[in-house]
Structure formats: structure tokens, C-alpha cells
Here is the input.
Amino acid sequence: MRTLTDADYLTELESAAENALNQHLARTTDWYPHDYVPWNKGSNFAATGGQEWDPAQSQLSELAKAAMITNLLTEDNLPSYSREAMTHLSLDSAWGTWVNRWTAEENRHGIVMRDYLLATRGVDPVALEQARMEHMTNGFAPTPEEEEAIGTHVLMAIVYPTFQELATRVSHRNTGKVCNDPVADKLLQRVSADENLHMIFYRQLSAAALDLAPDQTLHAVASVIENFRMPGTGMPNFRRYGVMMAKHGIYDLRQHLEDVVRPPLRQWKIFDRTDFTAAGEKRREELAAHLEKMEAQAARFEEQRDRLLAREASRGVSPELVAAK
Here is the structure.
């Protein structure tokens, strides 16, 4: 069985990319960020004759603030993601059309979330801008170890986003639920719907790659799962905010396993396929073992979290203080 190069994948998957693009365009609906922002709640800041931000002005809990900031900064780093896609996928034919369309659609997410937070004074705008500058300056890209593990840039560019788009969909959707604001909930439902459609595109391309080169693509899938990093990794306060979000069910190990990792594997029928060679079978066994390890880690985390939350509740710690820890 031959090993495909990046050029091989781009050429042989071009028709699949065109089909997936056409399906995506047929599924999408137009929406406009300004329709999701409560502009009547907005007011000038000090530089234009108003008041500077004060924590008392925010109606968001500490948990909701942490989740909104994490999700927005993740979206803000779009130039890094777009650069990776442009570098590793062709800008010709359907590939280029997709990269540009996907970038345009993703850009709306940061626009609408920032407009909402500024209009409602949900978070400190100065701290938010400082964090944006730091995060975007650092950028986000696969590590050399991750690229070497996967083997080809094209597979990195279609397999990783399959899981990443699902991850951001889960995080956005659950963040909307904790904001205690129907406007924020509706806004993040809309963003989550976009992420789901983007995931479907990448999932379709990954499925075509599996049919084209089963062993090689399976190895990429397993490597992405084994080395997965959220795109927000490295942003200011990422670890602290991530712990808060996991502790309160916005994005935790169980959700990562059940809502992000397993669905594409089922869609691709990874554990039912009969087209792997002996080497592919061995890699599939390694993936199965890794999933068992993830299951054990998720169960352990849930037990620890339940004990912690019960202990805090017994001491009468308020949910607001719990979230801030």
C-alpha cells in the first residue's frame, strides 16, 4: 500500500472537497451579527464622554465571564487558523473557495461575541483587548512533534478541525446556557450551528481520505486524538479558566470523549472497517486502548469533581464563589 503525499491528497480529494463545499453552501443560512446584539444596553466609555467599565456593570457570573473570554479569544486567533489552512491546503479550485468561505464565516463569531460583551459591559474591555493582543501575537500552530506524528499537512488540516470544530461547538453551546441571558444563549446557539456545519465539511473530507488511504488516515486520526490541544491553548488564564469550565460542565473530559471524539469515529465506522492492513489493525488497537484510558480519566475526574462540589456545598459556598475558584 503506497504512502500518499500532500500533493496526492489534494489532487485525489479535490472532487470530494467540491462536493462537500457545495453541500455546505446549500445548508448554510445568512445571518448578521448586529441582529444578535442588544444595542440598547450599550453606552459610551470614558474616552467618548461616558464611564469606564466597572465590575458591578456586568450581569455575567465569574464562570460565564471566564467561558465567554475563553471562547472569544479562541475565535480571535482566526488569522493563525486561516494561515494554517492556506499553507496546507491549496488556494486553487474548491480548496481555495472553502478556505476563504470558512474564514469569512468564522470571522463573524468573534465580531458578534465581542459586540455583545461590549454592549452589555460583560467583561473588562481593557483586559480583554490586552489578552487578545497577547494571544494573537503568540498565535497557534501544530507543534513539530504533532506534525511529525500525523505525517502529512493535508491530513492535519482536515482531521484536526473535525474534532476542533466539534469542541468549539460544545463549548459555545454550553457557555450560552450559563450566561443566564436569553440573548447570549441565542447568539451562541447561532455560532454553534456554524461550528457544526464546519465540522461536517471536515468530517466528510476525512471520510474520503479514509477511503483513499485507510491506514495512513487512521494513523492521522489516532495521532490527533492522542495529542489533541484546544485552539485556545496558550491564551492568558487558559488553564485557570479551563479548570472552571470543566468543573462546572461547560467543557470537561467526559464531554470531550463522548461529544467530540466518539461521534466522528462512529461516523467513519473506525471500529467496523475491514480495509485496514495488519499495520492499520495494530494502530486501531492502540487507538482503542487510548480511548479506554480516556474513559478511565473521565470517570476519575467526575468522581473528584463530585466530591469537591459536594464538599463546597456542605460548607455553604455560593455558586458564584465556587465558580471563581
